[in-house]
Amino acid sequence: MKRLAAVALFVLFAFAIGVWAQDDGSTAPVVWERYRVGDQKISIMLPKLPTVISRMDACHELDKSSNYAYAEGAVYEFTVVSKVKAKIPLRCSDMVPFGESTLTARLTELRGEKLKNVETSETRSERQVFKFDGEGQTRWIFADMKKNRWVELAISRYPDTKVDEEQFVNSLDLMSQEGKEIGTGSSITLGDADLKPSAVADSPKSAAATEAPRFIAKTYPAYTEQARKNRVTGNVSLRVTLLANGAVGTIEVVKGLDDGLTEQAIAVAKKIVFLPQRINGVPISVTKMMEYGFSIY
Asked: Which of 57, 115, 240, 260 is deepest in the core (most CB within 10 A)?
């Protein structure tokens, strides 16, 4: 009897660490409020607390912080790209100082033929603003190089989703400390609380009526010190449910790694930003395989 109880306890424990399930904290009502990045003195209106994905490239003096909020079939992005405060490390073989050339390189990227963007530009509050209209996404770049930075706003959406672009763009304030501090943001991409997730769909019978989930942003897991010390390498495979309401649902570990790497992969999977799959214009929940590689260079 004791042996059976021990086996049952082990199974429950294994299930607990092998599956992460959506809870009430993974959704939020759509309420447009002002949020701020305090150290940059910038604020903007967003529909909910965003997911934050940051990247720093010290060798190019570049610090990039992107904020993503899903609401009613659209993803709203608010990104600040600025000069890092630290000095360029001596180890950098390709040192590129942050400046006008950094912004020019970004604009050149957006003008690339593969993106097929239609560009327009204008002046707003004495600042140059570049607008790029692409398939399913509109992006604005506000040049603010006197403060060693620029701001990118973007809306990614379904073709038939109506959004108020001007309300979103006009809410940007480059000299504001008002609003809720974003900080590290939400630990998971928040779905819409007023839209119940559908059952996970099987493969649709009519591919022509299906719009696959569209991934807007992903981030990469970090090594733990213990894993680096033990030189643990390989892949973590996860089965991730992308819910119809824009939230990440159940995450099942198909293949894990030791020393905290599985947990690192789960943490970044919870921050996947996407537009849900749709069938005949109706969002549905689907499950996708995600793989995260860990290698020591």
From this structure: 240
More confident residue, 26 or 195: 26
pLDDT in tens, 216-260: 999 999 999 999 999 999 999 999 999 999 999 999 999 999 999
Q: What percent of the chain has pLDDT over 90?
A: 72
- Which two tokens mark 99? 């400046």
Long-range contact list for 203-209, CB < 8 A, 24+ apart?
A: 204/279, 206/279, 209/279, 209/280
- Give dist(CA 98, CA 36) in Å, integer: 24
Q: How far apart are CA 260 and CA 250, in angstroms?
A: 19
Q: Is the pLDDT of residue 192 over 80?
A: yes
Indicate the pTM of the whole model. 0.88
Residues 34 and 138 in one domain: yes
Tell me the average pLDDT across 156-176.
Answer: 94
- Same-domain check for residues 129 and 236: no
Give which of 86, 24, 82 is closest to 58, Cα–Cα.
86
Query: What range defines the domain where residue 176 resides?
Result: 27-181
Residue 192 tokens read as 């819409």
As given in the structure block, the two tokens for residue 232 are: 């643990």
Ranges of beta strands (E only) in 91-233 are 118-124, 127-134, 137-144, 149-157, 180-181, 191-192, 210-211, 214-217
Kind plus residue range of the DSSP H or E element containing 206: none
234: left (phi over 0), alpha (psi -120 to 50) or beta: left
Beta strands 282-284 and 277-279: pairing type? Answer: antiparallel
In single-letter form, the type of residue at position 189 comes to T
- For residue 269, give the CATH number of its domain: 3.30.2420.10
205 and 273 assigned to the same domain = yes
